Amino acid sequence: MTRKPQKTKPTKVKMSKKALLEIKALHVTVDGKEILKGMDLVLNRGEVHAIMGPNGSGKSTLAYAMAGRGGYEVTKGRILYGGRNLLRMEPEERAAEGLFLAFQYPVEIPGVANTTFLKEAFNAIRKHRGEGELDAMQFLKLVRQKTKELGISDDMLRRPVNVGFSGGEKKRNEVLQMAVLNPDLAVLDETDSGLDIDALKVVAEGVNALRSPERAMLVITHYQRLLDYIVPDRVHVLAGGRIARSGGKELARELEEKGYAEFAEAAA
Amino acid sequence: MAVTAETAKTVNKLAEQKYKYGFVTDIEADTAPKGLSEDIVRFISNKKEEPEWLLDWRLEAYRHWLTMAEPKWAKVRFPEIDYDDAYYYSAPKAADGPKSLDEVDPELLRTYQKLGIPLLEQERLAGVAVDAVFDSVSVATTFKKKLEEVGVIFCPISEAVREHPELVRKYMGSVVPYSDNKHATLNSAVFTDGSFVYIPPGVRCPMELSTYFRINAENTGQFERTLIIADEGAYVSYLEGCTAPMRDENQLHAAVVELVALDGAEIKYSTVQNWYPGDAEGRGGIYNFVTKRGLCRGRDSKISWTQVETGSAITWKYPSCILEGDGSVGEFYSIAITNNRQQADTGTKMIHIGKNTRSRIISKGISAGRAEQTYRGLVKVLPTAKGARNHTQCDSLLIGDECGAHTVPYIENKNMHSVVEHEATTSKISEDQLFYCRQRGIPAEDAVALVVNGFCREVLQQLPMEFAVEAQKLVGISLEGSVG
Ligand SMILES: Nc1ncnc2c1ncn2[C@@H]1O[C@H](COP(=O)(O)OP(=O)(O)OP(=O)(O)O)[C@@H](O)[C@H]1O
Ligand SMILES: [Mg+2]
Question: What ipTM was assigned to the predicted interfaces of this complex?
Answer without folding.
Answer: 0.91
